[in-house]
Write a structure and sequence with these properties.
The protein has 186 residues and is α+β, with helices and mostly antiparallel strands. It has a single domain, classed as Jelly Rolls, CATH 2.60.120. Helices cover 20% and strands 34% of the residues. The chain has three helices and twelve strands, in the order αββαββββββββββα. The protein has a seven-stranded mixed beta sheet with strand order 1-2-3-4-11-6-9, covered by helices on one side. Strands 8-7-10 form a three-stranded antiparallel beta sheet, with helices on one face. It is globular and about 45 Å long.
Length: 186
């Protein structure tokens, strides 16, 4: 991990409570291709397959803005934000954004990537997750702050990320359901 940090010599500090979250040391942020490559390498090294750079200064900021890279096979538990819209702008790769009803049934799938949708706004109070299609998927996310973990509601019908065996079965099930939607692929 230290070699990755040295190789890119970026001005970011790791949040010690979370191995894949970094904040800028500079008070302002600019993100270029080298930062995205760095995030991709970090995500590859992290057990959960994710990494993010926060462009905001703290979890208390009124706008939470971050660049995120997620590796194929990583699990994002279906969740919703009761009073917050979320915007995603694709920076690399492909993924499917799945929307669910309150019972856990897929109600919509949005294909994201350079040959699909590059931007989407996820409405408040809608369960959603990502299924990564390429080796890595990168995006710029903006959501109103402040960030409070208690304001993210995880779906009771989906496994926690800690339930490895259930997660694997659930992800296989999601893949099968997505394939039944017969989305055209670029």
């Amino acid at each position: 991990m230290r070699n990755i940090l040295k190789n890119y010599m970026l001005n970011f500090t790791r949040v010690f409570s979370d191995k894949d979250v970094f904040f800028s040391d500079l008070g302002s942020s600019s993100i270029g291709p080298s930062a995205l490559r760095w995030l991709d390498e970090l995500a590859r090294c992290n057990e959960d397959g994710k990494a993010r750079i926060c462009c905001h200064n703290s979890y208390d900021d009124l706008v939470q803005e971050m660049f995120i890279v997620i590796r194929k096979g990583a699990y994002i538990p279906p969740h919703k934000h009761p009073s917050k819209n979320e915007s995603i702008h694709v920076t690399m790769g492909e993924a499917d954004l799945l929307y669910f009803n309150e019972d856990g049934e897929i109600v919509n799938i949005l294909s994201l990537g350079k040959e699909a949708e590059l931007y989407c706004r996820i409405p408040e109070n809608v369960f959603h997750t990502l299924v990564i299609r390429s080796e890595s998927f990168g995006f710029h996310e903006i959501i109103p702050g402040p960030f409070r973990q208690s304001q993210t509601i995880h779906a009771s019908w989906a496994p926690s990320f800690l339930e490895n065996r259930l997660v694997n079965d659930y992800m296989v099930s999601l893949e099968e359901q997505v394939n039944q939607w017969a989305l055209p692929r670029p």
